[in-house]
Design a protein that fits this description.
GO terms for molecular function: alanine-tRNA ligase activity; ATP binding; catalytic activity, acting on a protein; nucleic acid binding; transferase activity. The chain is of the alpha+beta class and 417 residues long. It is 42% helix and 16% strand. It contains 14 helices and nine strands.
């Protein structure tokens, strides 16, 4: 629905539709597509631009988020990014108008509830205000964060869009503007899964059609009964991401995407250390993941049997290996009279691949609390703006955004709006 709406609106406004490309890249500076602009960077590398515009729906993958998966409602490694690209504009109004029209239709939202973080640079704050947005819903700074398309490429500025929803705030879209030779190039990002669960009035995307087939299995199958809420989310996310990568040509032997596949499998294996994934359940998970991809708009022809056999073997092998490492760690812990130095714990990470949080979990199962230093929590807006718990309520969305941006920039910006 939302994908069709976005592409349809683009066609109505004479945007060309760009083809979607595979997640997996070969002989490139990155191993997989992490944003729609990465798939179409050639458009931004021209020296001169004529007025033209494009829309794209692009599946993306980010291995940087693997440690956040399951812990935060808006974190997922695989998702669909909807993007418009414009070239040759003299100001930001047309791009912003498209963004506002699309977002409000996509979520059945009220434009008067939108909040903008808009820079003074390139006249973007004035462009937002000229579209009828109230000034008290536009946050600006005397100095703004620059954005970049990569090393050696031109920089620009983002206009960010937010929408208050339930007990928090949803980052609903970003529109980047880059000036070159007196005209603007526009990049943008809208996340389909995020828009969809807001449109449907659901608490998170786990209940939406893009995750629900896996959510139903993981939350109701006895094999996962002893898993924590976070661990169940991990399975829902990772199985979907693994299948998406595999159907796009990734293998467990490839160095880039293959490394991400192995990391996800190992994260899953820790949750079931020593348990064997039933073959029938493995096949059901593959089928459910493919249903999720189908709802996202992908008609994948996959060999279920071969895929499930491969994945089950990988998970079972990792599960047995984790169990052996767990037993070795517990034995070492007991021989050290339930006390280990931070240096010793770090060796288990560097030499055996057991993350500190896993070691803490194994120790707690033995009734032992490790003396680990308090983790320094890095503030990330996406993880803080919307919680699984509805008691974590953001009372003043605009103030929350201002404080979050100040934390991001360590207080160096001066508020002007």
């Amino acid at each position: 629905m939302i994908r069709e709406l976005f592409i349809g609106m683009g066609k109505e406004r004479n945007y060309d539709v760009l083809p979607e490309v595979s997640l997996v890249r070969e002989n490139q500076d990155t191993y997989y597509i992490g944003s729609a602009v990465m798939a179409h960077m050639h458009l931004f590398e021209k020296k001169q631009y004529t007025p033209t515009s494009y829309v794209a729906a692009q599946r993306i993958f980010s291995s940087k988020r693997l440690q956040e998966i399951g812990k935060y409602p808006l974190s997922t490694s695989f998702e669909v990014m909807l993007s418009m690209f414009r070239f040759g504009d003299t100001d930001g109004r047309e791009a912003l108008r498209f963004a506002i029209d699309f977002v409000c239709k996509a979520i059945n939202g009220d434009p008067d509830k939108l909040i903008f973080l808009a820079p003074y640079e390139l006249g973007l704050r004035n462009d937002v205000l000229s579209l009828g947005i109230s000034s008290n819903r536009v946050i600006s700074w005397n100095q703004s964060l620059e954005t970049s398309l990569g090393n050696g490429r031109p920089t620009g500025y983002y206009v960010k869009m937010f929408y208050p929803y339930r007990h928090g705030i949803i980052p609903i879209g970003s529109i980047g503007f880059i000036e070159s030779n007196g005209t603007l190039s526009v990049d943008s990002a809208f996340f389909m899964e995020r828009l969809s669960f807001v449109r449907e009035g659901l608490p998170t995307f786990y209940q939406d059609q893009f995750f629900a087939p896996l959510t139903n299995i993981v939350n109701n199958h006895e094999f996962f009964a002893d898993l924590s809420f976070y661990e169940k989310n991990l399975w829902i996310n990772h199985i979907r991401s693994i299948v998406a990568l595999l159907v796009d040509g990734a293998t467990f032997n490839s160095k880039g995407a293959g490394h991400a596949l192995k990391k996800m499998v190992r994260q899953l294996a820790v949750t079931i250390a020593g348990k064997k994934l039933p073959h029938e359940l493995g096949e059901k998970l593959i089928l459910a993941a493919n249903q999720c991809l189908f709802h996202l708009g992908y008609l994948n022809k996959i060999e279920y049997q071969k895929l499930s056999d491969t994945l089950i073997i990988k998970i079972d092998t990792a599960s047995n290996q984790i169990l052996k490492e767990k037993k070795a760690f517990i034995k070492a812990l007991r021989s050290n009279q339930n006390n280990m130095s931070m240096e010793e714990l770090q060796k288990w990470d560097s030499e055996r691949g057991l993350k500190l949080e896993w070691l803490e979990k194994f120790a707690m199962q033995e009734g032992v609390s490790l003396s680990c230093p308090q983790k320094i929590k890095k503030h990330q807006f996406r993880n803080e703006c919307y919680s699984f718990s509805e008691t974590d309520r953001i009372k003043d969305p605009i103030q929350f955004i201002k404080e979050s941006e100040n934390k991001k920039m360590k207080g160096v910006l001066i508020k002007h709006g």
